[in-house]
Amino acid sequence: MANRLAIIGGKVVTPQSVIENGTVLCEDGKIVFVGSDKDAAPEPGSRVVNATGGIVMPGFIDTHFHGSAGDDVMANGAEGIRRIARALMRFGTTGFLATTIAARHSELMKATEDTLAAESDSHEGAEILGLHIEGPYINLKYKGAQPVEGIRDPNFDECRELLAAANGRIKIMTMAPELPGGMELIAFLKANGVEASLGHSEADYDTALAAIEAGATRATHLYNAMSGVHHRKPGLASAVLNEPGIQAELICDGVHVHPRMAQLAWRAKGRDGVTLITDATAAQGVGDGTFTLGDFQIQVRGPLCTLMDGVTIAGSVLTMNRAVGNAMDFTGMSLIDAAHTSSLAPARACGVANRKGSIEVGKDADLAVLKSDFSVGFTIRAGAVAYEHQV
Predict the structure, then answer these.
(1) How does the average pLDDT of the chain come out, rounded?
(2) Which phi and psi (to 5°) does residue 77 adopt?
(3) 33: which strand partners?
(4) Which of 16, 197, 198, 200 is the most exposed place for a label (fewest CB within 10 A)?
């Protein structure tokens, strides 16, 4: 007997329109109908989710994400990553890239092994869509919260070994193009199906242009840990804003990026040039306290997540549902744009846009049902209710 789910009564956000009083019908994990409630009714035996007064969006996909609920991607093995995947259901996130920090080669190999193990044996929670390797080939001067001992110039032997071990699951690598061998690394990553993301870098504008020419397609957390916007000395951030060939990650927590600078990025890049991320740490969803980011201790006070010096920003506590609400508030983007930047654009980066990232017939039934304040009422994963807010 087919497993059926019907979501009724909410604003359904599709790539083309927002359907008022919409209906989404799901069967055996796939979307089988999207439209007005006047045109379809739930099949007998369906579970019905009443979204009246709320917003139905495609499940969020976070392509830059280090941890949640006390677990760090690199700290607690495959089981820790599985717990992270389950924790993400609270925030409407139905897919993610397990993101590392700059680390020794053996540590990156272990994180890769753990992610693949979690991915192969994970039947609950958000889908693990691969890895984002943030570093280790980054610039010490712009390391931010990255550990010194994990940072080095490009090493092609270890990079080949890492990519081979990952078996095609590394989707993004953050790197600094100005390092010795940086341009060659970009071409190497492109040839191996990995998106080179420019970040933790002091590249000037011309170096950024050369990196784009070499095949770089992304920029890691725009404005943060990169050479900036200056009227006589334009750096990497300037190139990201001005050049259409780069997709910019944007952290809309009001801490990493001032709302006016988020607005500037949106006006410069538009929805085809922006991907919303959280850069979240193990502190996500927990509250104030002391946590880990790799081997570092970090402290959280409200929305601010720093190293123990209380100054150096070290990831965030942002969630994707709040990122969407903030992005709309900061930039004026529409619900359709918000769905694109939080779901479809990241799905493309992960190579899964043929089955995820938008509410369309035939795609995976991964959905987030939000209340008017962008809190999560329900998270639907593979056509089943994986999270329901309890009043």
Answers:
(1) 95
(2) 70, -165
(3) 25
(4) 16
Domain ranges, residue 15? 4-57+357-388
Query: How many Cβ atoms are within 10 Å of 390's Cβ, its own excluded?
Result: 4
H-type alpha helices, 48-176:
77-87, 105-120, 156-166
Mark 216-250 as b/e (b = at least 16 C-beta within 10 Å): bbbbbbbbbbbbebeeeebbbbbbbbebeebbbbb
d(CA 118, CA 183): 33
336 and 307 together in one domain = yes
Query: Do 344 and 220 belong to one domain?
Result: yes
pLDDT category at 332 given cuts 50, 70, 90 is very high
Q: Is 38's pLDDT higher than 90?
A: no
8 A C-beta contact, residue 40 and residue 25: yes
Give the type of residue at 116. Answer: L
Please, what is the Cα angle at 14 between 250 and 45, to 5 degrees? 125
The CATH number of whichever domain residue 144 belongs to comes to 3.20.20.140
Q: Are residues 191 and 285 in the same domain?
A: yes
Whichever domain contains 9, its CATH number is 2.30.40.10
